[in-house]
Amino acid sequence: MNISTATSGIATASASATKEEPTNALGQDAFLKILVTQMKHQDPMEPLKDTEFIGQMAQFTSLEQLTNLNKTMTQFVSSQGSSSLADYAHLIGTSVKWESETGSGEGMVKALSSKNGELLAELEGSDTKVPIASIIHIEKTEG
Protein backbone atom coordinates (compact mmCIF):
# COMPACT_ATOMS: atom_id res chain seq x y z
CA MET A 1 0.00 0.00 0.00
CA ASN A 2 1.32 3.40 -0.91
CA ILE A 3 1.31 5.13 2.45
CA SER A 4 2.16 8.63 1.20
CA THR A 5 -0.77 8.58 -1.24
CA ALA A 6 -3.17 7.31 1.42
CA THR A 7 -1.86 9.80 3.93
CA SER A 8 -2.27 12.72 1.53
CA GLY A 9 -5.78 11.53 0.69
CA ILE A 10 -6.66 11.37 4.37
CA ALA A 11 -5.13 14.81 4.95
CA THR A 12 -7.20 16.19 2.06
CA ALA A 13 -10.38 14.64 3.48
CA SER A 14 -9.55 16.03 6.92
CA ALA A 15 -8.74 19.49 5.56
CA SER A 16 -12.01 19.73 3.66
CA ALA A 17 -13.93 18.54 6.72
CA THR A 18 -12.16 21.10 8.86
CA LYS A 19 -13.37 23.88 6.57
CA GLU A 20 -16.96 22.71 7.04
CA GLU A 21 -16.74 22.21 10.80
CA PRO A 22 -15.22 25.10 12.73
CA THR A 23 -14.86 23.02 15.92
CA ASN A 24 -12.10 20.85 14.35
CA ALA A 25 -14.06 17.79 15.48
CA LEU A 26 -13.99 14.66 13.34
CA GLY A 27 -17.53 14.65 11.99
CA GLN A 28 -19.56 12.25 9.90
CA ASP A 29 -18.42 13.64 6.56
CA ALA A 30 -14.74 13.57 7.47
CA PHE A 31 -15.00 10.04 8.85
CA LEU A 32 -16.72 8.81 5.70
CA LYS A 33 -14.16 10.56 3.46
CA ILE A 34 -11.30 8.97 5.38
CA LEU A 35 -12.93 5.55 5.06
CA VAL A 36 -13.47 5.97 1.30
CA THR A 37 -9.90 7.23 0.83
CA GLN A 38 -8.58 4.29 2.79
CA MET A 39 -10.55 1.87 0.61
CA LYS A 40 -9.39 3.55 -2.63
CA HIS A 41 -5.74 3.37 -1.67
CA GLN A 42 -5.58 -0.07 -0.11
CA ASP A 43 -3.21 -2.71 -1.44
CA PRO A 44 -5.18 -5.13 -3.69
CA MET A 45 -2.92 -7.96 -2.55
CA GLU A 46 -3.73 -7.26 1.11
CA PRO A 47 -7.23 -5.73 1.20
CA LEU A 48 -8.86 -4.46 4.34
CA LYS A 49 -10.06 -7.39 6.42
CA ASP A 50 -13.81 -7.83 6.83
CA THR A 51 -13.60 -7.46 10.60
CA GLU A 52 -11.70 -4.17 10.30
CA PHE A 53 -14.20 -2.84 7.76
CA ILE A 54 -17.17 -3.90 9.89
CA GLY A 55 -15.56 -2.26 12.92
CA GLN A 56 -15.07 1.00 11.04
CA MET A 57 -18.65 0.95 9.78
CA ALA A 58 -19.86 0.34 13.34
CA GLN A 59 -17.81 3.35 14.48
CA PHE A 60 -19.34 5.43 11.70
CA THR A 61 -22.86 4.36 12.71
CA SER A 62 -22.11 5.15 16.36
CA LEU A 63 -20.75 8.57 15.39
CA GLU A 64 -23.88 9.32 13.37
CA GLN A 65 -26.19 8.25 16.22
CA LEU A 66 -24.23 10.26 18.79
CA THR A 67 -24.37 13.31 16.54
CA ASN A 68 -28.14 12.98 16.20
CA LEU A 69 -28.51 12.45 19.95
CA ASN A 70 -26.42 15.55 20.63
CA LYS A 71 -28.61 17.66 18.33
CA THR A 72 -31.78 16.36 19.99
CA MET A 73 -30.46 16.96 23.51
CA THR A 74 -29.32 20.47 22.59
CA GLN A 75 -32.81 21.29 21.28
CA PHE A 76 -34.42 19.77 24.38
CA VAL A 77 -32.21 21.71 26.81
CA SER A 78 -32.73 25.00 24.98
CA SER A 79 -36.51 24.53 25.00
CA GLN A 80 -36.47 23.70 28.73
CA GLY A 81 -34.58 26.86 29.57
CA SER A 82 -37.11 29.25 28.07
CA SER A 83 -40.41 29.86 29.82
CA SER A 84 -43.41 31.40 28.17
CA LEU A 85 -46.56 33.06 29.43
CA ALA A 86 -48.52 29.92 28.57
CA ASP A 87 -46.39 27.94 31.06
CA TYR A 88 -47.77 30.08 33.90
CA ALA A 89 -51.35 30.67 32.70
CA HIS A 90 -52.62 28.47 35.55
CA LEU A 91 -51.64 31.25 38.00
CA ILE A 92 -54.44 33.55 36.78
CA GLY A 93 -57.14 33.61 39.44
CA THR A 94 -54.90 32.26 42.20
CA SER A 95 -53.79 33.97 45.38
CA VAL A 96 -50.03 34.39 45.66
CA LYS A 97 -47.55 35.54 48.26
CA TRP A 98 -44.26 37.01 47.11
CA GLU A 99 -40.98 38.23 48.50
CA SER A 100 -38.23 40.18 46.81
CA GLU A 101 -35.36 42.47 47.77
CA THR A 102 -37.67 45.48 47.42
CA GLY A 103 -40.58 44.15 49.48
CA SER A 104 -43.20 41.47 49.94
CA GLY A 105 -46.95 41.09 49.74
CA GLU A 106 -49.84 39.03 48.53
CA GLY A 107 -52.67 39.34 46.08
CA MET A 108 -54.79 37.74 43.39
CA VAL A 109 -53.16 37.25 39.98
CA LYS A 110 -55.25 38.97 37.28
CA ALA A 111 -52.83 38.73 34.35
CA LEU A 112 -49.35 37.76 33.23
CA SER A 113 -46.93 39.83 31.21
CA SER A 114 -43.37 39.75 29.96
CA LYS A 115 -40.93 42.64 30.12
CA ASN A 116 -37.32 42.39 28.96
CA GLY A 117 -37.53 38.60 29.03
CA GLU A 118 -38.79 38.50 32.64
CA LEU A 119 -42.22 37.03 33.36
CA LEU A 120 -44.40 39.13 35.67
CA ALA A 121 -47.66 38.42 37.52
CA GLU A 122 -50.00 41.42 37.64
CA LEU A 123 -52.04 41.58 40.85
CA GLU A 124 -55.67 42.74 41.19
CA GLY A 125 -56.44 46.03 42.89
CA SER A 126 -53.01 47.56 42.30
CA ASP A 127 -50.43 48.27 39.66
CA THR A 128 -48.11 45.73 41.29
CA LYS A 129 -46.22 43.48 38.91
CA VAL A 130 -44.39 40.65 40.67
CA PRO A 131 -41.60 38.65 39.02
CA ILE A 132 -42.64 34.99 38.79
CA ALA A 133 -39.38 34.00 40.51
CA SER A 134 -40.41 36.05 43.60
CA ILE A 135 -43.59 34.05 44.26
CA ILE A 136 -43.17 31.91 47.38
CA HIS A 137 -46.76 30.62 47.87
CA ILE A 138 -49.60 29.87 45.46
CA GLU A 139 -53.14 29.10 46.63
CA LYS A 140 -56.15 28.24 44.52
CA THR A 141 -59.13 30.31 45.59
CA GLU A 142 -62.66 28.97 45.62
CA GLY A 143 -64.97 30.74 43.30
TrEMBL record:
Pfam family, any one: FlgD
GO annotation, biological process: bacterial-type flagellum organization
Residue intervals passing through the bilayer: none
UniProt keyword annotation of Transcription present: no
Compositional bias of kind Low complexity: 1-17
Spans annotated as Disordered: 1-22
Keywords: Bacterial flagellum biogenesis, Cell projection, Cilium, Flagellum
Keyword Repeat: no
Family from the record: Belongs to the FlgD family.
Name this protein carries in UniProt: Flagellar biosynthesis protein FlgD
Lineage: Bacteria, Bacillati, Bacillota, Bacilli, Bacillales
